[in-house]
Amino acid sequence: MIMYWFLTIILIICSHVSTSTSANSAGRVEYLPGFQGPLPFYLETGYVGVDENEDVQLFYYFIRSESDPEHDPLMLWITGGPGCSSITGLLYEIGPIQFEGWQYNGSLPTLTLIPTSWTKMVSIIFLDIPVGTGFSYARTTRASHSNDIQLSDHAYEFMRKWFESHPEFVSNPFYVGGDSYSGIPVPIITHLISDGNEAGNEPYINLKGYILGNPFTFPEQSNYKIRFANGMGLISDELYKSLFHTCRGEYRSEYISASNIECRQNLELYEECIDGIEEMHVLEPNCGHPRNLIRIPTPKLLNEFKCYFYRSQLVNYWILEASVREALHIREGTIREWTRCADLNFTSTLDDVRPYHQNLSMKGYRSLIYSGDHDMAIPHQSTQAWIRDLNYFVTDQWRSWKLSGQIAGYTESYSNMMTFATVKGGGHTAPEYKPEESFAMFKRWISYQPL
């Protein structure tokens, strides 16, 4: 009996040790279902435990630079939402593989290499954050809730722990990047890293700057949709002038007086004009929004409309395959159901990060801010507006930038080491619609070359 209890205690201790040491885990992925042959690049997936007792388990995909990983920059990439998996960035925007073609026949979607991957120049960590995004999960109910500040704290803790297990990358130039809603946490994370370095936190992170695409930044940016719609010919000059006069530049309904009947009537006319316009890219067919999708679209729907919205759902078919989850080293039973963009237990606590940009500018960090110029969800005019609010001198005046002799967009640079660029024909977000142009833009900027 004594021996029985002794063995039981030993098993409990061993079980506890196994659980605690497996909180941070990583493994190389050499083959992926849907891709023919071994992967010609280094892919690693894993979990890093953060928060109290490591109750938040953050999942990541890491791809080494395909050029010179020992010296090339390292970038942490966060997809927006909040709640959209970073696999969006990997498979649809800036990663080395994408789903092949538009057609879907009900079998496992196939993957193919693309030449415009940003991993040609940098190593990238695609992080599923906040908790509940993608394959990241919470081990307690309390840990399943997060907000903007917690998201940023978790990302900073993640990076410090990731560097502990990957010390060979500590000296590489480091950048924080993201798009859409990540316009909120990215400058906060960058600021946390900078403050941590100044405080002497270990490891010292060789922070150089940050990158943002079509970023959410401040609440007034929705007012610029009216101006964008007029510039794109979606509303008449007469309606635009009447809107500006009657609403006095404020078009958000919660800030318009109930007695301002003319403004509200003009807004109704505006809504009628843009009804059926795809906000993410005004030239694309309107196919609805991922969050409004009750179920995965059928193959017929995927093939009937060449919609980026439906194309983005191919990953759902792919992830459903057990062989895919096994190849990615996913822990069984940790999430209930994987969705590309999940509904989270998340609270948005910040809606204006202009002060963070101001502080980072004062510290001398470089930044690239870009916008697809056909994005009405976060119009490029709104991004230009908050950049002007920083009150820095223009060092390279507004001009076109070109690719293969053709205008690829427009750019302007400032004395705070910030570069703004539009990607001609790009939507929300630019790399998904214009990969070649976005690749050229990023390659020049990360190499300290003018666009």
UniProtKB/TrEMBL annotation:
Residues 1-22 form the signal peptide. GO terms for molecular function: serine-type carboxypeptidase activity. One of its GO terms (biological process) is proteolysis. This is Peptidase S10, serine carboxypeptidase, alpha/Beta hydrolase. PANTHER family: SERINE CARBOXYPEPTIDASE-LIKE 19, SERINE PROTEASE FAMILY S10 SERINE CARBOXYPEPTIDASE. Keywords: Carboxypeptidase, Hydrolase, Protease, Signal. Belongs to the peptidase S10 family. It comes from the Eukaryota. It comes from Helianthus annuus (Common sunflower). InterPro entries: AB_hydrolase_fold, Peptidase_S10. Pfam families: Peptidase_S10.
